[in-house]
Each structure stands twice: as C-alpha cells, then as structure tokens.
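Write out the bound-state structure for flavin-adenine dinucleotide.
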Amino acid sequence: MPSSIIPGFTGTVIRPEDTSYDAARVIWNAMHDRRPALIVRPQTAQDVVAAIGYARAQGLLIAVRGGGHSMPGHSVCNDGIVIDLRALNRVRVDPQTRRATVGGGALLGDVDRATQELGLVLPAGVVSHTGAGGLTLGGGVGRLMRRFGLTIDSLLSAEVVTAGGEVLRASAEENADLFWALCGGGGNFGVVTEFEFALHELSELVILATFHPLEEARKVIECGRREMADPAAPDELLWTSFLRRANDVPWMPPGLVGRHGIMSLVEWSGDPEQGRSVLAKIRDDLNPAASDLSVVPFLFMQTITDDLFAHGLRTYIKAGFADDLSTGLTDALLDRAASLQSPVSQVELLALGGAIARVPADATAFPFRQARWLINIPATWREAADDEREIAWASGTYAAVKPFLSEGQYVNFMGDDEDDTAAGAYGRTMERLRAVKAVYDPDNIFRLNQNITPAGRPT
Ligand SMILES: Cc1cc2nc3c(=O)[nH]c(=O)nc-3n(C[C@H](O)[C@H](O)[C@H](O)COP(=O)(O)OP(=O)(O)OC[C@H]3O[C@@H](n4cnc5c(N)ncnc54)[C@H](O)[C@@H]3O)c2cc1C
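---
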C-alpha cells in the first residue's frame, strides 16, 4: 500500500488486507500468532523517525523486529505497529580498520558472510538466521565468547533513533550513558539502525563433537567441569554440552539416533595443530560412543544447526547461571534429561569465563560476567498438541535445578512468565538502567522487551 499514510516514510507499509501480511507477521517462535494493525519496513533511519512519530500520534503500541528470534515474542504485537528492520541489513567491512558497520536488521549470517570474506569475525551467536540486533543488545554469547568476549565487547558505536525521534550516535565518547545501556539493556532505549563493531582475525575452528548415552553423562559433565574450572584453561577452549536425544548427524551411528544422552561440542579457536592435540586428549579422556574431531571453516560451523532450529518451531525457554556444575545440579539435570521427549528439546551447559570475565563489571550493562556456566533449557517442538507436555518439561526442569543456580538470568534466553523478571535480567545494573531509560524513553514506548521502567515511574 502507499506509504503516504505515514508522513515522510519511504519504506514499505503492510496492512492486514495485503497478501504479504500473513507472512510478514510471522516470527521464529510459532507460539506467537499475533495480528498487528500495521507492519512497516523502513529503509533509512529517517523512516524509523517517521514510523515512531506516526505510532505515537496514533497511540499505537510499538514492536521492534530485528531477526524475529525473540522467544517470548517481543517483536510482534496485536493491534499495534511492527517496525520491521529487515531492509536495514547492509553490512560493510573496512579491511583497513578491521571494523564492520551492520544494519539494525541484519542477520548473523549477513555479518558472517561479509566478514569472513576478509578472514575476520564478529563474536556472536551460533545460528545464522538470528538477528544481530536483538542478540547484541542483550549481550551476545557464542562460540568465540571466551576468546574475544561477548558481542557487546566488540561494539564500538551505534546509531539510535530515540523515542523522541532524535537520531543519535552512541559510543564511549558520545552519549556514553546510552552506549553503556545498549550494551546489555536489550531493546529498551531506542531503535538501533546501525551498529559499528571491531572485528577479529579467525577463519577456522577445531571441533570435537561427542555423544555418550545418559548412563555416562555424569562422567562427561565432570570432565567439562574440570577442564573449565582450571584457572589455566585457555581462552581458545570452549565447552558446551547438550543433554538431549542424539540427532542424526553424519558421525552418529544410526543405532544411536534418538537415544537419550549427552552431546558435547568442544571447540578450539586458536592454532589448529595445538587444538588438535588438546582436543584429542579430551576425546581420549571422554572415550565417547561416537565422535568427530576435525578442522572446519568458521562459516560452516555457524550454519551447522540452522535447520535443526528452523523457523516455525515452537519454543518455551528457561535459563540461569551457575557458579559450578555441582553434584546437586548434575543429579537434578540427569534426572530430568531422562524424561525429555521432543527430539529438538535440550538442556545446554555453556562454559563462560575467559575474555567475558576480564571486562570490568561496570563497563557494560551486562551484569553477570563472573558466572562460570550458563544453563539453558529450551524446550523446542513442532506440534501445538505437544505444547503442554513440553512447557511442563522445561518448567519442571528449571524448578529442579533452580536451587543450584546463582543469581540472574541472561536477557536473551528468557521467556515471559513469573520467574522471568527484568530484575532477574539486569540485576545490580537496574537502577542505572532506569535512570538512562528516563532520559531516552521517559514514556516507555519501547516496552515490548524485558522491560526497564523509567526512573520515577512505578516498577
Ligand atoms: C534459534 C535461536 C538461536 C539463538 N542463538 C543464540 C546465541 O547463540 N547466542 C545468544 O546470545 N542468543 C541466541 N539466541 C537468542 C537471541 O539472541 C534473542 O532471541 C535475540 O533477542 C534475537 O534477536 P532478533 O533480532 O533475532 O530478535 P527480535 O525478536 O527481532 O528482537 C528481540 C528483541 O530485541 C529488540 N530489537 C531487535 N533488534 C533491534 C534493534 N535493531 N534496535 C532496537 N531493538 C531491537 C526487539 O524489539 C525485541 O525486544 C537465539 C535464539 C534463537 C531463537
């Protein structure tokens, strides 16, 4: 339809009567079937200014959509307006400065493809159809986090359209309070139309993938705990274990596919020869039922689970941090893993530390840098008929492990039920975030997120 309905807007406007409407309102998590009054796709920052002005004048609730991967469905709403950033997906890489400018609606795959052409990387997430925008604003964990830090630790500046329709640059030098808040405070402070990142050199990884049946999972968890608790554990080493049913990957013997157990991905992001020898030793210690040790291109790894976590799945997520993979936590996890049903659901144990923990606590709004493990419990399934069963499994698992978790929740791995509060997501940074929110969004128009209420307003 003509965009003249929004003064000054040059992008695309989609209304419920348009043929493209149903496809345009879909987000990754099929649990959220919502019908906005209007979907707009800006082409420039000025279009975002126009869309915000229009929404405010009409009193419309605003949802901002980057890659659409919000598990609680924050990027789509009923009756309001969706500002869909997908046309702002340009990625430019400067080989001289080793910096990338990334559009606010770019996907991780857009970033990876452009940066890898020059042998450079942005440390970010592990599924290429995830939005770089939402992932960055929440912190950004992924396979290079122990080596290069969270995604926000590579963020240099951002162009932001505020609630008042100003286009601002935020960096350590300019609007430093806003920049600090963008680094972990989620989508609370405005629409980021462009990010500027520092890049790092890397084009391949050494990976060890293993599977053990559930009876042997305790041994695997204990091995991961030992390796990553060692103060000398190199930043290049990353350990992730998944309690799940064995999936159909090329190295898995057909007889094991579907069996309950633990899959681990131990990755090395440094010198390949050294990595091969470190990972071969870990494989010998683990003595897995099935395994694969290889050197792979970074781009290959970044797309390897794209299909497993394809659009259109249904998800319910619970997560928390742990200081240690204690015996109590392991007992609870192993007990719950036995009752897992969906072939996509899993409990993920992600080792943190390394470069993440060396950034000063107050440097960014991400408050949980000293946590050692992130315990992520995403139930994921295909059919609506399984909703009750899968939600009960994830919430029951979370209840069982909660006594063994440390404080806080990772804002990007949260749902929206009673356990999932903004206080949990932002911890001790909350009061400072509320003060920044009062400056840049005093009327809380950006509230479809893990919401920070402006200082001076009731929480
Ligand atoms: C399959 C899958 C894999 C994932 N893997 C990882 C991972 O490896 N590491 C990790 O850290 N997280 C991961 N996540 C979580 C992911 O980081 C969050 O869901 C994140 O919010 C997704 O960002 P998005 O832009 O795709 O989502 P959206 O749903 O579009 O947005 C999520 C939130 O961010 C806001 N937002 C998005 N873009 C902007 C912008 N440019 N300006 C202002 N606000 C914006 C939205 O308003 C919304 O509140 C994964 C999620 C999924 C579903």
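---
The CA atoms of residues 193 and 245 lie 40 Å apart.
Residues 27-28, 64-71, 74-75, 85, 104, 125-127, 130-131, 133-135, 137-138, 140-142, 187, 191-192, 309, 412, 448-449 surround flavin-adenine dinucleotide (CB under 6 Å).
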